Amino acid sequence: MFSGLTFCADCEAKMYYCTSVKFEKRRDFFGCSTHRHRKDQCSAHYIRSVVLEDMVLRHMQMVISYVTTHEAHFRAVMGARLKLASDEAIRVNKKKLAKAEKRLHELDRIFMRLYEDRGTARSPTSVFPP
Ligand SMILES: [Zn+2]
Asked: Using 50, 70 and 90 to split pLDDT, how confident is the model at 78?
């Protein structure tokens, strides 16, 4: 369930799901991939999958309890966060749009000069500065 989503707290590498020799679910764990391949670069960090699942479940229950108890506050906080993220996205996209429009205008000028050069039989390479 959490494969590819867990990372070592020390080296920040992915942690890989490992099953026990006897395939007992309670012994399955996520282990640091760095330690798995280069034992001298990270310790043997691991977390048993049942412990991780329990921690995530408890956290989800805590968040759900908070949201149901303080729904108005949660909505206000999340709304503010989403607005910040969307304002930033709008700013970045406006910048991209301005850059693309500027390039489009440049291309229009180049095409127009190429067309005019064709009409006067000048070399089209003359539109490009050396
Ligand atoms: Zn590690």
From this structure: very high
The answer to whether residues 11 and 32 touch, using CB atoms and an 8 Å cutoff, is yes
What is the whole-number distance in angstroms between the Cα of residue 6 and the centre of ligand 1?
A: 11
Residue type, 92: V
Residue 75 CA to ligand 1 center (angstroms) comes to 37
Q: How far is the CA of 29 from the centre of ligand 1 (A)?
A: 14
CA 40–ligand 1 middle distance (angstroms): 10
Report field, pTM of the whole predicted structure over 0.90: no
Neighbours of 112 (CB within 10 A): 11
User: For the chain, what's the residue count?
Assistant: 130
DSSP at 27: G
